[in-house]
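thread from #wetlab-drylab

HS: before we spend reagent money on co-crystallization trials with S-adenosylmethionine, can we at least see a predicted complex? here's what I'd submit
DV: go for it
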Amino acid sequence: MQLTDKEFLWIVSYVHEKYGINLSQKRVLITGRLQNYLLRNGYQSYSEYLAKVEQDPKGKEAVNLINVLTTNHTYFMRESVHFDYMNKVALPWVKQYAAAKKDVRIWSAAASTGEEPYALAMLLREFFELDKGWDIQLLATDLSTRVLKHAMEGKYLAEQISPLPEKWKKKYLKRISEEEYQVTEEVRKQVVFRQFNLMDNIKFKGMFHIVFLRNVMIYFDDDTKKSLLKRIYDRMENGGYIFIGTTESIDKAATQFKYVQPSIYRKIK
Ligand SMILES: C[S@@+](CC[C@H](N)C(=O)[O-])C[C@H]1O[C@@H](n2cnc3c(N)ncnc32)[C@H](O)[C@@H]1O
């Protein structure tokens, strides 16, 4: 099955316009992933499939296109410097800032298969353990419905949970088979998973104290990044922290966030 230049350019522009993801240098990735999908699903050509996506942009095939083309690599305790910083600086700030309402609003904005928001949920439980009455739900969103389904189930292999502290594993994971563990119901309930495209207006209730926007902006061009950071900034409490991937950076001229240290920024008005 051959992907023509025209079909390739159509996919690049469709995915860029709708989801901000730049695949212009990713022809091999596109063919590698889509070809398998098309063969498994009985398509004879790319054009037959792309016509379906175009006809119904909210339909099953459009959803599957994004499920196939997004890169969802993640793992528990990734960039552990952020978890240390949360514990030592960001959460103590929240505790003081939100002392009256006792609500902490945290958003994992590219949550993938759930490792990031669940580790945050565990960290929050540990941090607020002795302080009763705190509402410690967190919001976790992603574009891909495939990874969200996995995330909601909260099932992981033994090797996947290995980076978590032993104490957390014992408290927050239940062995469900020889190979598999599941995040406890209590922790799963603490995380609200929603499908959300970071290109859209942010309409979630309330203002966030902390946003994790890690390892997703790498796929976006400068204008998309700038506009996303502005929309997030406007939905954050003054003093709030935003964490990005440790290999990412934000151009000073492109944001109102103030630099704190590599990959950590803050809204200070
Ligand atoms: C590499 S994963 C990052 C997971 C986690 N934050 C981490 O750092 O380990 C990137 C995620 O961003 C999601 N993503 C890509 N474009 C998006 C968009 N426009 N809106 C929402 N999520 C998007 C992908 O589906 C993928 O699951």
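DV: The domain at 5-69 is CATH 1.10.155.10 (Chemotaxis Receptor Methyltransferase Cher; domain 1).
HS: ok that's useful, forwarding to the group
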